[in-house]
Amino acid sequence: MSGGEVASSARVRIKGRKLSVIRFLILSIAYTIPWVIMLSQLAYYSKVYGPQVLLQMNIAFYLPSIPVLLVAGHVEKLLDRKLGSTASMAIRITAGLAGCAAIAACYPFIPKRLVYLLGLVVGLGSISAIAFSTSYQLVAWFRSADTIALGIGCVASGPLALVIQIALHIGTTPKRWQWIALFEIAAGIVVLGLVSAWSLFLQYWGVMTGKVPYDDTSAPLLGFTEQVHALQDIKMPCSMVMWVVAWP
What we know:
Strand content: under 5%
C-alpha cells in the first residue's frame, strides 16, 4: 500500500451527494437481491426438498462465509501490498459482484437436486460476503449519508424482490419462464450494482490513490478562524456607520 493512499484515507471524506447515495444504494441491493429472491421461493423449495430446506439453506449460506472472510483478509493484505488499497478494493468488489451475477444467472438451469441447490448457496454466501465487506471499505471514503444508503439497500432488496414477483405473477409453483426471468432479473440488478461500484472508482480513483487532491466545492472558502475575523472586520465598519447615522 502506498503512503499516499494511507494519508488520503486519513483525511478525505468524499461528498458525492445524491449520485453517490444512489450508487451505494444500488450496490448493496446488488449483493443481497439474489439471496433474498432465493428465500422468497421457500414455499416451492419446501414442496420439492422438504420442510427442513430453510435451515439447510441458511447453514449453507452463512457458515462457509466465515472461513472465506478470514482467508479473504489475508488475500486483501497481499493485494494491498502489491497493487495498493484502491486497486485491491476494485478487484475484490468486482470478483464478489461478478460471482453473484454468475450464480444468479446460472441458478435456474441447475438440476433439481438438493446437493446442487446447497452447493450454489454456499458459493453465493461466500462470494456475496466478499462484496459486502469490500463495500463497507469503499464507503469509508464517503460521508455518513452514503453509509446509511448502503444499509438501506440491504433492507430495500426485500420489497424489490416482492415487486419483481408481483410483476411476473409468480405463485407458489412458478412456471419455467417465470423461474428463469426471476433470476435473470436478479443477475441484471447485480450487474447494475457492479456498474455503480465502478462508476465510483472511476470518478474518484485519483482521490483515493492520493494522486489527485480532493477539492470539496461545498466546503467554505475560509476556515472557522478566518470566518470569525472576517465577520469582525465587517461588524466594525457597520457599527461605525450606525454610530454616525445615530449621531445627532
